[in-house]
Amino acid sequence: MTITEQIHQAVLKAPASAWTPALEPDGEIRDGAWVAELAGDVLDGWPKGMRLIVRKERPHPGAQLRFTDADGMRLTAFATNTKNVPIAALELRHRKRARAEDRIRAARATGLRNLPLHDATQNQIWLEIIQIALDLLAWLPMLALTGPARLWEPRRLRLRLFSAAAQLVTTGRRRILRLAKHWPWAHVITAALQRLEALPNPR
User: Fold this and answer.
1) Per-residue pLDDT tens over the stretch 115-166
2) Which of 126, 175, 184, 197 is the most buried (most CB within 10 A)?
3) Where are the domains of the chain?
4) Long-range contacts of 130-139 (CB under 8 A, 24+ apart)
5) Distances from the Cα of 170 to the Cαs of 161, 166, 177, 191, in angstroms?
6) DSSP classification of residue 144
């Protein structure tokens, strides 16, 4: 039996009293989500002091359940060796870290996967350029994008927005960006530029 199957069976055997409501960052109860700590045979062979925390949560409308889910609930699990911390707080800490993992994935897609230069100083400059790019990628969705575009990963942004063919024309002391009419995401670019122009001038 695989570890996934062992966890699945342990969740099915966990009594109702083992589950406690999950928390939101503001301390409120997370609707439709519960956490439990699994023990017993499922931890056989694990390093001493390890804790196995499981969250079950009602899936969002339209979400497709996996074969490892149970009783119509989406299951997620993680292991930790942190002691003397309530399981709800541990699960919240783990869930909040998902955003950091997203940033790490974005950094790898933006040039962090490989250091292309031989000299350490040159690679330091490369890393600083990556950091600038990540800052721009973090601010772009918040300030300029709306809807599904706010969730686009760096590769998708490059394909749909950054690589769009355009012509910058200066006329009458005005700069006009002319986008190709056939570009499917031209409206996303123009809307983003309009949102940026509408921002208050910090001067």
Assistant:
1) 888 888 888 999 999 999 999 998 999 999 999 999 899 999 999 999 888 8
2) 126
3) 3-97, 114-203
4) 134/103, 134/106, 134/107, 134/110, 137/106, 137/110, 138/103
5) 22, 13, 9, 20
6) T
Nearest CA-CA partner of 19 in 7, 32, 6, 28: 32
Task: Report which residue type is found at 19.
Answer: W
Q: In the β-sheet with 20-23, what is the strand arrangement from edge to edge?
A: 20-23, 29-38, 51-57, 74-80
Query: Please, which residues have CB within 8 angstroms of residue 51's CB and are 6 or more apart in sequence?
Result: 37, 79, 80, 81, 82, 83, 87, 90
Q: With contact defined as beta carbons under 8 Å apart, do 107 and 155 qualify? A: no
Residue that is written with structure tokens 């950094």 in the block: 107
- Does the predicted model carry a pTM greater than 0.85? no
